[in-house]
Amino acid sequence: MSEKKKTAGDATETDDQAAEAPEAEAEEQAAETAEAEADETAAEAPAEEPAGEETPEQRVAALENEIAELKDRLVRSFAELENTRRRTEKERQNASKYGASALARDLLEVIDNLRRAIDSVPPEAVEQDEALKNLMVGVEMTEQGLLKAFEKNDIKRIDPKGEKFNYEYQQAMQELPNTGQPAGTVVEVLAPGYVLHDRLLRAAMVIVAKGDPDTPPEDTEHVDTTA
Questions:
Q1: Measured torsion, CA atoms of residues 83, 84, 85, 86, in degrees rounded to the nearest 10
Q2: Which residues lie across from 204 on neighbouring strands?
Q3: Domain span holding position 173
Q4: Which residues does residue 68 pair with via DSSP β-bridges, in sequence order?
């Protein structure tokens, strides 16, 4: 009896499974169809840029800006280099032209003393004393040699006696009245002046004929006094 019931139950379960099989197969086919359609839709849809990444246009623009910045830096660097080169060249030229200014100023006192020594000895005494005469010849030769060395190095002497007073080359130490010279004329040179190239080493110290103090000196060419 029990075996008959079991057989009947198995048959019923088999019938149920057979009924469910077409449904499961239909659902599986529907799922596969939906998945295939989703894949086709995804393939047809344009790819989206990942969040946070630049587009090609943005990348190109960024590179162009970077290139422009580098070009600007390069131009500025070349300009600065050229300015440095010009400044260095000017400093080199100034050092070559005016590097001896300090030494030349020190030698001015030496040459002044040589001239004072020559002027302090009366010509009569020189003629009467052979030894003194030889000494004075040596002093004069020393003075001339130093002046030639000055001239060779573009150091020129300013001896403006009889000329119109020039306030840029000369320094008036005194005004002398009743000289018979036009007002403002240099009547005596106390110490000659010197220029190195176009720079004044020392102004000539002079005495000028007295004139109207309200009358300004004549215009003169500018002289660089920064040597």
A1: 50
A2: 170
A3: 155-227
A4: none
